[in-house]
Amino acid sequence: MITAIFSNRLEREVKEPDNEQYYKRGTLAVLGVLRDIERDATPIMISHARGQFISRILSVDKELLVIDYGSNDYDNQVTLEMHSLRVNAEMKGAKVEFSLEQLHEAHFGGLPAFSAPLPAELLQIQRREYFRISAPLDPIFYCHATWPEGGKARLRLQDISLGGVGVLVEGEMPENLPSGDIWRGMRLDMGEYGELQVDAQLLHVGARTTVSSKNETVSTPRLSFRFTSLGPAQERQLQQIIFALERVAREKAMRFR
């Protein structure tokens, strides 16, 4: 999916020598980053040769990293058998990635969990741009908003990231929409994944051009927004949605190979 592309991109980034400056090495440096992930309950994606799942860091100290079990028992058992795992997280403004040789069965708060020694190093890259994933075509996700001069707007979500969204205007659009305006109380309706209410700044008014079945060129207005502020809970919810969409797209891509 977009996931396979994303995963390959991450692997390339880790191997590229230019990323040497982004490595955190040593106990204190690694511990500081992982404690930030734990504190903010940032979702993490654990990937291995036989799959991937979303989890979170439950506890971390100088010697031990404790990670929550996934929601699927089979996935958990398969994960315990793996000897090479990659963990990545999308913090606000940064991407974090590290490798683990193996996860072991443990308990935390009386419940099953994974444990592993603290990694010796991790990669933390400050993002200039956020990873962006396309919204599904079925079901369609919508953005409900109010035009600057009044009136309700229902816009189709085209892509989503931690930084903002791109939407398509289906229907009439006011002329001369001013870039830079803050749109308050936008409601992102993402079906089974839930809703988010956000404030966002309009960055760009453009168009998406496609060719119809009749070989006619169709131009649809496209608006690009940047979130002006996301609370920690909203950021976690949005990251979980992005991870979930990435996983669904990856599974679809594998079925059609």
UniProtKB/TrEMBL annotation:
<keyword id="KW-0975">Bacterial flagellum</keyword>
<comment type="function">
    <text>Acts as a flagellar brake, regulating swimming and swarming in a bis-(3'-5') cyclic diguanylic acid (c-di-GMP)-dependent manner. Binds 1 c-di-GMP dimer per subunit. Increasing levels of c-di-GMP lead to decreased motility.</text>
</comment>
<keyword id="KW-0969">Cilium</keyword>
<comment type="subunit">
    <text>Monomer. Interacts with the flagellar basal bodies.</text>
</comment>
<dbReference type="Pfam" id="PF07238">
    <property type="entry name" value="PilZ"/>
</dbReference>
<keyword id="KW-0966">Cell projection</keyword>
<dbReference type="InterPro" id="IPR012349">
    <property type="entry name" value="Split_barrel_FMN-bd"/>
</dbReference>
<protein>
    <recommendedName>
        <fullName>Flagellar brake protein YcgR</fullName>
    </recommendedName>
</protein>
<comment type="similarity">
    <text>Belongs to the YcgR family.</text>
</comment>
<dbReference type="InterPro" id="IPR023787">
    <property type="entry name" value="T3SS_YcgR"/>
</dbReference>
<dbReference type="Pfam" id="PF07317">
    <property type="entry name" value="PilZN"/>
</dbReference>
<keyword id="KW-0547">Nucleotide-binding</keyword>
<feature type="domain" description="PilZ">
    <location>
        <begin position="126"/>
        <end position="244"/>
    </location>
</feature>
<keyword id="KW-0973">c-di-GMP</keyword>
<keyword id="KW-0282">Flagellum</keyword>
<feature type="domain" description="Type III secretion system flagellar brake protein YcgR PilZN">
    <location>
        <begin position="22"/>
        <end position="123"/>
    </location>
</feature>
<dbReference type="InterPro" id="IPR009926">
    <property type="entry name" value="T3SS_YcgR_PilZN"/>
</dbReference>
<dbReference type="InterPro" id="IPR009875">
    <property type="entry name" value="PilZ_domain"/>
</dbReference>
